[in-house]
Amino acid sequence: MTGPGGLGPEMGFAFPPGSNEDTPMFVISVAAQLSGLHAQTLRSYDRLGLVSPGRTAAGGRRYSLRDIALLREVQRLSQEEGVNLAGIKRIIDLENQVDALQAKVTELTEEVAAAYAAAESAAAQIHASYRRDLVPLRQETALVVWKPNRKR
């Protein structure tokens, strides 16, 4: 599995058992080194809500590979694109919203497909039951004459 920002097995980084790119594992000094930013910048970004690392029980910050990729993206938007921090926060918020909406669309699409399959299956069972319930009927024509008794 490749981690965000090019970190992963191809870069000599293997995930510990039971962890992935979202697992908080790096202290702030290591995250600063991996992202190319100063530790104080990481603290500022945390206060501004740009990148929110996990926390230990004692309150220490722990950054995941996804956090480090996000730190790199914040740096790129700021330095290369000239976007201010408020704009970067808005971009991150909108990207998170798009990701959440895409996940919801995927979930709903799967639900609709499952409901459609269930309806098709139920319809097939009903149609299959018709063949067992039908009884052949002989076609006969009969003429019945009814003569009511007349009372006088």
Automatic annotation (TrEMBL):
Residue stretches making up the HTH merR-type domain: 25-94
InterPro entries found in the cross-reference section: DNA-bd_dom_put_sf, MerR-type_HTH_dom, MerR_fam
SMART domains with a match to the protein in the record: HTH_MERR
Segments crossing the lipid bilayer: none
Coiled coil: 91-118
Keyword annotations of the record: Coiled coil, DNA-binding
Gene Ontology molecular function terms on file: DNA binding; DNA-binding transcription factor activity
UniProt xrefs under PANTHER family: HTH-TYPE TRANSCRIPTIONAL REGULATOR YFMP (PTHR30204:SF58), REDOX-CYCLING DRUG-SENSING TRANSCRIPTIONAL ACTIVATOR SOXR (PTHR30204)
Name the UniProt record assigns to this protein: MerR family transcriptional regulator
Species in which this protein is naturally found: Saccharopolyspora aridisoli
Classification lineage: Bacteria, Bacillati, Actinomycetota, Actinomycetes, Pseudonocardiales
